[in-house]
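Hi R.,

Here's the chain you asked about this morning:
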Amino acid sequence: MAVMINLVTVFVLAVFVGFELISKVPPTLHTPLMSGTNAIHGIVLVGAILIAGLAHDNTSAIIGFIAMVFAAVNVVGGYIVTDRMLEMFKKKPEGN
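And here is the predicted structure, written out as C-alpha cells:
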C-alpha cells in the first residue's frame, strides 16, 4: 500500500510540474518542442510494436496492441498540431 501511495504522489507531482513547465513555454518554442516529442513518441511506437510482436500470451499481445494504438494516435496528433503551428508562422497572401 505504501508503494502505491508513493507512486501516486510522484504521478501527481509530475502532473503539476509538467503543467507549470508547459504553460511557461512561449509559442515560438512550442513547434521545436513538439517535433522532439514526436520523435520520442516514434520510439515509443517502435517499442509497442516489438512488445506486441514478441508477446507469448494474449494479454501481452492485447496490451502491446493498445500501446501501439495510443502511440500512433499521439504521433499523428503531434504532427497535426505541429503542422497547424507552422501554418501560423507563414505569411498570408497580400491580395486577400
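One quick note: The helical segments are 2-23, 27-53, 58-88.

Cheers,
M.
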